[in-house]
Amino acid sequence: MITPALSRTTAISRRQFIYYSALAASATALTGYARPQPRPVSPNEKLNIGVVGCGGKGSSDLRFCAGENIVALCDVSDSATARARESFPNAKVYTDYRQMLEKEKSLDAVDIATPDHMHAAIAATAIKLGKHVYCQKPLTHDVYEARMLRDLAREYKVATQMGNQGSASDGLRRAVEVVQAGLIGSVRQAHVWTNRPIWPQGLDRPPGSDPIPAGLDWDLWLGTAPSRPFKATWPDAPASGERRRQRGVYQPFAWRGWQDFGTGALGDMACHTVNWPFRALSLGYPTEIEASSSGMNKEMYPKSSQIRFEFPAREGQPPVTLQWYDGGNRPSKEVTADIVALQDEVSGSGCLLVGDKGQMYSGDDGDQDLRFFVKLKDEKELRRGLDHDAVKAIAETLPRNAFQGSPDQRQHLEWIAACKGGKPGYSNFDIAAYLTEIILLGCVALRAGKKLEWDGPKMRAKNAPEAEHFVKRHYRKGWSL
Asked: What CATH number corresponds to the domain at position 366?
């Protein structure tokens, strides 16, 4: 027989149990233990993939994912999805990625190939739903977004990869091994240059507006960026005789030069060309960034720029100065003398590492299989790295990509394998977000117009609080991460 006291105690315990159970459920939601998880997929199964951005780079991404189930195609341009649907007639078509992610419950993974300003919003939404993500470079438009995506990918345990395709090449991994083996000694200088921009930059916004093309959702294209009228061509653009990408104001390629949408020459190419020194030298956060240019305005990146990054000593390595050059700028003749002796000219793009025992050079963009050359102190000229006896003696320490095809295809296949429980991709967000974060500091320095004394862990310029807006922008009303 239960005594009244015991009965009362039992009743209170039940109420407490119900209360604390509800509290625990709420806490579970807040702390993420009940958050969406990726669907377990075996290596013998096919992923269900949705692609956001079907034109341009998105069209090649689709080809490299074609061995899986392409279940959804999303693009703000009807013509882009129409072309893609010719190859994937069973895929559902969407204009708004948010609707795609809401309705396509079976999606395992999302491939993102949109203008830079939309990368983070799309990727973050997908990750929070437990979807694996492949995102084109640069990973994000802002420094803050890169840090946030890195943390989200860790939290939700999704497989990720950034589209700097050269990461899949044996050449890049071999070049990293050679530097880390100490063949050219301690590296104190790194010079990286590009033939970009190959689109208009350094201009003011043209006045007026043009009719929005049929089938283009301009408001969705703007997305997180401030509203502005659509403009198809520059006022003084010739009607013919010039490539379309040179005539267009925002599309199909010229958005890269606009601060609201792209990240300029640096954002376009540095995730490729700085990839090698970033990995080989374990660069970490710079402490100082200083930019000079042909002239900045509030709309576009400049026609040309040079940016200096100062990295402190780390892990037994000395400080490193990394110099970036674009818009026709190149390292000095003294620095490039051996390159000119090798090939009679300085390559349009390239990377040169200068150590106290020698130097290494690659004239590639870094988005394909990296070819490198070596010259040691007692040698007269640069020699092809893979033929150099000292290089041959260096052991392989990095895993190689096991897949066949171009670096772009191999990188996608590496990501797909990671989605099915394999090893993380070589350019997963842990490394890619770090690289992107550092590169985008050059954009911050250009826009701030002053040397930045940088606190990497806190993501702030100690001497320039006014740069905060360029580190973390404000999204247009109705958009958020």
From this structure: 3.30.360.10
